[in-house]
Amino acid sequence: MLTSSATFSGGEDVAYTLQAHGRAVVIGETTRGGAHPTVRHAVTVHVQVTVPSARTVNTVTGTNWEGVGVLPDVPVPADRALDMALDMVLDPALGKALGTALAADRR
Length: 107
Hints:
Elements: E1 2-3, H1 10-20, E2 27-28, E3 38-42, E4 48-52, E5 74-75, H2 78-90, H3 92-105
Helix pairs in contact: 2-3
């Protein structure tokens, strides 16, 4: 899965969940870090306050990505993420080496 510093909220949820379950390799940049759903309350006509209304908890990690973002398995600038993913798919040795390294990290 490809991520960037602009990936936020629902996109982060998909990346974090698939990564935690070992179902995807996250390639790109650390995401923005928005895990908690919020509700906006009008204070005045021109002022709103945003208040967290829930807390996301991943069943595998027991935590979430709030404030820290989803850390990629393969950190590269977002504009290189697709090229890196294609390199990994097209070069079996590179893909295998990464798979072995990720498996060792998850133990």
